[in-house]
Design a protein that fits this description.
disordered N terminus; 6-stranded mixed β-barrel; 4-stranded antiparallel β-sheet; mainly beta
């Protein structure tokens, strides 16, 4: 069945944080074991033979995604070890192993939330998962947090019937996970001979989970700025709390892969790097930055047409594929794109709705967009801004919204080395061919 971009966006909408049912959890016991000053993870395309669920005759979302490399090749030096992470339905799955003995877990990387959780046995209400669920009773290092502990009671967490610290975590798309908080050992299989083991990681053992998950999703790896996120829990072991990501475009060569790096190995430096400050808001642990506008070619389209620009007006979210802008700003941006594209938009296809689409066998040659963040101009090629929802059609991977949740999505983040520094409160960007790593 042919899906519109709008339907595709709905199916793969991010799991960015809608509200906290969890309060900030006090981390009284730091992670213990580490064997590196930093480490990296390899991001593997869903259609790659390295992907654990690879099928040689299966196309990404049943559509043909071609390679349109328009970013110059740049070297990327891996200083630390690396492990596999997969790409799946517009999101990225990082491979971790939980417990002792270790059990593989592929979790969605989400910079828009904090909690690290996996589906666990027993599961009273769980979505279908292709791989076996984590069984805590089989792990020698699994340690549930009791509800009468200081970590649970002082912040008002509830008790499960087994007197364990029960959590409930909800997302904007109405996805929900419920379970108990526990401590567990996580192993990063960076190489066969040199795994990195980190103990006492707090994670959610989800016993009731529902929402817009697919069978390859085994949970979510929260990469936000809160104390429960993976980067916060392990950051100080590897220099400081920072990480970088380099995401391959979804319609790129199936053997290509990107990376995600932590600690000292995640520095984004060198020629072409631009940096913007993170904006802190009370109760927010997501990565908020200030977008001043977007240029279409040489024409600047301001974020606001009249009112004063608000700081922290957009979130950088690895879990949301599309970029969501204020409706009025989006409308002005689309009008300028129509003028400069010199193409006739599709207006007779009900599957595509009102989104800006063109009939093309290959991606557009222009115009180039430039996102103007505070102090950082980030150039976006058509490979980062137009995607093919079906054969012979390319659509703008942006949408307008009036709900106030504005997002710089991971379609636009591809082919950019992006560094998040939680201690320095900055985000850095460097144009990079993420397929050449």
């Amino acid at each position: 069945m042919i899906l519109s971009l709008a339907i595709l966006m709905a199916n793969i909408l991010c799991f960015h944080l809608f509200f906290f049912v969890l309060h900030m959890l006090f981390l009284s016991q730091p992670p213990t074991e580490a064997h590196s000053t930093g480490f990296s993870f390899k991001l593997i395309h869903k259609n790659s033979p390295d992907f654990p669920f690879y099928k040689s005759d299966k196309k990404f979302d049943e559509h043909k995604f071609r390679s349109f490399n328009q970013v110059p090749k740049k070297s990327f030096v891996q200083k630390g070890p690396y492990t596999r992470v997969t790409s799946n339905n517009g999101d990225y799955l990082m491979k971790l192993t939980l417990g002792s003995p270790p059990v593989d877990m592929y979790g969605l990387i989400d910079t828009g939330s904090d909690l690290v959780w996996a589906q666990c046995v027993p599961c009273s209400r769980c979505y279908r998962q292709k791989s076996p669920m984590f069984e805590p009773l089989r792990s020698k290092t699994y340690s549930p947090i009791p509800c009468d502990s200081e970590q649970c009671s002082v912040f008002g967490y509830s008790c499960s019937p087994q007197k364990l610290c029960a959590y409930s975590y909800s997302y904007a798309d109405s996805s929900v996970t419920n379970g108990v908080l526990a401590r567990e050992t996580i192993t990063f299989s960076l190489t066969d001979d040199n795994p990195v083991v980190v103990g006492d990681i707090i994670f959610g053992c989800g016993h009731s989970n529902s929402g817009t998950f697919n069978e390859n999703d085994m949970g979510i790896i929260g990469m936000g700025g809160g104390p429960l996120s993976l980067v916060s829990q392990i950051g100080t072991l590897y220099g400081r709390k920072r990480f970088s990501q380099c995401l391959v475009p979804f319609h790129t060569d199936t053997h290509s892969s990107g990376t995600i790096s932590f600690g000292d190995d995640s520095d984004v430096s060198g020629e072409g790097v631009v940096t913007t400050p993170l904006v802190s808001e009370e109760g927010q642990t997501s990565y908020l930055v200030t977008l001043e506008g977007i240029s279409v070619g040489d024409t600047f389209v301001s974020y606001n047409s009249s009112e004063m620009l608000s700081k922290g007006n957009i979130m950088i979210d690895s879990g949301t594929p599309a970029t969501y802008l204020p409706q009025e700003f989006y409308n002005r941006l689309v009008e300028e794109l129509k003028i400069q594209s010199n193409l006739i938009p599709i207006e007779d296809d009900p599957d595509l709705g009102t989104q800006l689409c063109y009939r093309r066998e290959t991606n557009l040659e222009g115009p180039v967009l430039t996102a103007h963040f505070e102090g950082a101009d980030v150039q976006l090629m058509p490979i980062q801004t137009f995607i093919p929802p079906k054969d012979g059609v390319f659509c703008l991977a942006m949408a307008g919204t009036t709900d106030g949740d504005y997002i710089f999505g991971n379609f636009a983040q591809s082919n950019i080395l992006i560094g998040f520094d939680l201690d320095r409160k900055t985000v850095s960007f460097k144009p990079t061919d993420c397929t050449n790593q």
